[in-house]
Amino acid sequence: xxxxxxxxxxxxxxxxxxxxxxxxxxxxxxxxxxxxxxxxxxxxxxxxxxxxxxxxxxxxxxxxxxxxxxxxxxxxxxxxxxxxxxxxxxxxxxxxxxxxxxxxxxxxxxxxxxxxxxxxxxxxxxxxxxxxxxxxxxxxxxxxxxxxxxxxxxxxxxxxxxxxxxxxxxxxxxxxxxxxxxxxxxxxxxxxxxxxxxxxxx
Length: 202
Description:
alpha+beta; 5-stranded antiparallel sheet; 4-stranded antiparallel sheet; 9 strands; about 25% helix
């Protein structure tokens, strides 16, 4: 059962003092995406009215926080994002966990989701489609566009999909079979950063 909580944006640790926490966290997301789509990231930085230097500094502080001796659990996310917008209990097989979500203004149709298990252990943290927001139509491999779809959406559209190890902790890969524009099946490998589609790597 979901519940709505207060979501006052903090200016949390891990970001320059003049950047609100949610803005800083979006810079953390963008820093990893800049490796594949620097032009799109530049556009996003202009929308946020921040510089590449600020993005690098925010990411440096985030990495330091995540690797601190007492780091762990959901607290680093709460520190920047504040109270989650929703908290819901979810069953994953035999595991009962909590799903915490926050809005991400750069992607209004998405939410940042953190899944936590016993003692606050984080099982997963990535971008997912917001409840009620329309998913993209993924009929062929040609419909895959950067930043347009999530891991779950590609896995459903081109099932069965096989998860693969990503090239970094915040990256995922899926191997699947998708038709080309002429309908011929082709084996593809898709790569995601923070759960958002970036590119094909096959």
